[in-house]
Amino acid sequence: MAKIIIDREKCKGCLLCVSFCPKGLISVDKDLNRRGVKPVKFSPRPVLRSPQGEGGSFSKGGCLGCAMCAIICPDCCIEVYK
Ligand code: SF4
Ligand code: SF4
């Protein structure tokens, strides 16, 4: 299964990658980084999402290695491994 590695110290917390991951595998970390923002983290299993505000759903399956997250990141914080 593919995976990504996020440079949490470079991350500025813009959340673009969270929006673009089709599997919902990226979420906000609870701890601040050195920049003073909450960076994102990768979870190999899908996290609960409720983009429509009600109900919520689990997307199925792990990382596709599609690299959408890495492409969209403006600060090149994400590396994808297949
Ligand atoms: S490579 Fe694709 S599926 Fe994997 S975390 Fe990034 S956007 Fe999500
Ligand atoms: S797109 Fe990049 S800078 Fe923005 S939250 Fe994701 S990893 Fe951080």
Q: Which ions and ligands are bound to the chains?
A: iron/sulfur cluster
Low-confidence stretches are 52-57
CATH class: Alpha Beta
Question: In whole angstroms, how far apart are the ends?
Answer: 7 Å
The main sheet comes to: 2 strands, antiparallel
Side-by-side strand order of the widest sheet: 1-4
Kindly state the number of beta strands: 4
In short:
By secondary structure, this protein is an alpha+beta fold. The chain contains 2 helices and 4 strands; from the N terminus they run βαββαβ. The strands form 2 sheets. It has a two-stranded antiparallel ribbon.
What descriptive keywords fit this protein?
single chain; 82 residues; alpha+beta; Alpha-Beta Plaits; two-stranded antiparallel ribbon; two-stranded antiparallel sheet; 2 helices; 12% helix; globular; binds iron/sulfur cluster
